[in-house]
Amino acid sequence: MARPRSFDLDDALAAATRVFLLRGFDGATLDDLTQAMGVNKPSLYAAFGDKGTLYAKALGGYAAMATSAMQAALNTGDTLEQAGRNLLLGAIEVYAPARGEHLGCLIATTATTVAGSDPAVRKAVAAFLSSIDRMIEATIERRFGENLSEKGVASAAAVLSATMYSLAIRARAGAPKKQLMSITEDAIDTVSVIAEAQARPAS
Length: 203
Known about the structure:
By secondary structure, this protein is an all-alpha fold.
């Protein structure tokens, strides 16, 4: 009979995710991971598989959390500009909290470095980025498509998506919050121009 686990899988995975955020895939050693997760190496392998499998599980959990938070932000605000600003401000709070490390985004700032050499990670990253793009575009279409052309929906979604990844990389590099906020406002100005230029004619 297998011995029951003496640790919580979700807590251990959350700890591993933080290590990968701090050190990246290559920089995170098994000793780093086991110490943070509070498990020994045999227990890690038994519960999560090898380091690559653990990283893929961390990516999956992070992607699900990020997608849910982004969609919730986009569902607030009465205008496209307000919804977009809420999305980007929420991202800044995650990437560069008022107190704590500027970790950026696990997908944008650490997974992309592994994706070039690991086909499985590359596939997972591509799927995540594609799903985020679709979610942003679909949410904008659902909430504001009545007044915005199809091209306008796609263009606004592309601006917001690209800005999020830019914010993640800059936050990871230590950009001050003032700079991140300025980038956000520039992006929202662009979205506002799109909303005006691509508005559907009044019926």
